[in-house]
Design brief:
The structure is a single chain. The protein has two domains: about 80 residues, no CATH class; about 240 residues, no CATH class. It starts with a helix and ends in an 11-residue tail after the last helix. The chain is α+β, with helices and mostly antiparallel strands. It has twelve helices and 14 strands. A five-stranded mixed beta sheet has the order 6-9-10-11-12.
Length: about 350
């Protein structure tokens, strides 16, 4: 970690730092007060395509760009690092990932990428990826150490070759190609994680028929892909299946990681994706961010890295509101002990 990174607060602004009412304090039609409590700075609201370019939209005191219902840090290196926990601001590694990542919204308060890195990198540094994999898969995939964490298809600073080969197999011509948020890989199994924070699962894509090339999908799906409502999940599942086949891995799973509140929304029914369309439904599972907190972080007696992650979960916001189920966050257990393996 660089010296400059050490001076940054250990986590982004959240429930403790933002105004309790969470309402935008508009000052006229196009001006707004900073969201941080007790801050009197007033900035211009961005309009149209100007939202990334208006320096007059930035609170100079807190170095955030202020939007009606959210905020973001600058896109520069020392800006987006501010959205990561102090324990996982791995500048060199993140820069390499940044060079191959398709989309980069690391500085946004509602970024699923920042949340994903903070959680999975913390478990990697703590040597607890096997425990996390067991939770996410419901112990259906046996992950034998060592387990590799491959974030956003970046493997040791370069594009992950098996994913590149899958893109060629499916003749993927998308402007934004398939890019799993996380791959957990061991010699015994593989887990693809499609992480969601606020975006929906239920979506259709006009070019989904392209992924029926060669009929590979028939090994796994009970219907034509166009009939499935979750085309993003379809793509990720097919990529996971193809890569597992190429690597000779028998056990694989696609995990859809969501917030508990979004899982319960009537319009978000991705939990039925496996039962409705997969020949082997146990190769898909939906888990929640709250599951991770509930299983591993409900304690006041944790190692420093996991304790910071606990406080991050409890303080985290999404569009200025509490990000996670407050009933889960309110629980406390002093006796949780994480096993070494």
């Amino acid at each position: 970690m660089s010296k400059s990174a050490e001076t940054i607060p250990e986590m982004p602004y959240g429930l403790h730092e933002l105004r309790a009412d969470r309402r935008p304090l508009l000052v006229g039609a196009h001006r707004i007060r900073c969201h941080v409590k007790d801050c009197s700075e007033i900035v211009e609201l961005p309009r149209g395509t100007q939202w990334k370019r208006m320096r007059t939209n930035c609170c100079q005191r807190h170095h955030i760009f202020v939007h009606k219902n959210t905020y973001r840090f600058d896109d520069t290196e020392m800006g987006w690092q501010r959205n990561f926990l102090a324990t996982v601001r791995d500048t060199d590694r993140l820069k390499k990932i940044q060079g191959t990542k398709v989309e980069q919204r690391w500085g946004h308060e509602n970024s699923e990428d920042a949340l994903t890195w903070n959680v999975f990198r913390t478990f990697e540094k703590a040597g607890k990826l096997s425990l996390l994999a067991a939770l996410l898969t419901g112990e259906r995939v046996q992950m034998v150490e060592p387990i590799e964490l491959i974030p956003w298809s970046n493997h040791n600073g370069s594009p992950w070759e098996p994913l590149e080969q899958a893109r060629q197999h499916f003749k993927e011509g998308k402007r934004i190609p398939t890019e799993p948020d996380v791959v957990l890989l061991s010699r015994s199994g593989m887990v693809f994680v499609e992480a969601k924070f606020g975006s929906p699962n239920k979506r259709k894509e006009p070019d989904i028929y392209r992924y029926q090339v060669g009929g590979f999908y028939k090994q796994y799906f009970t219907a034509d892909l166009a009939s499935v409502s979750y085309h993003q999940l379809v793509r990720h599942f097919l990529f996971a299946a193809h890569i597992a086949d190429q690597l000779g891995i028998r056990q694989f799973m696609l995990v859809n990681l969501v917030r508990r509140s979004s899982q319960q929304e009537p319009g978000n029914t991705s939990r039925h994706f496996g039962q409705g369309f997969l020949k082997k439904p146990n190769q898909f599972r939906q888990a929640t961010w709250e599951d991770i907190y509930d299983a591993f972080l409900r304690s006041n007696d944790l190692p420093p890295e996991l304790d910071l992650l606990r406080r991050y979960f409890e303080n985290k916001t999404w569009n200025l509101k509490p990000a996670f189920d407050r009933a889960v966050m309110a629980k406390k257990t002093s006796g949780i002990v994480l096993p070494e393996h």
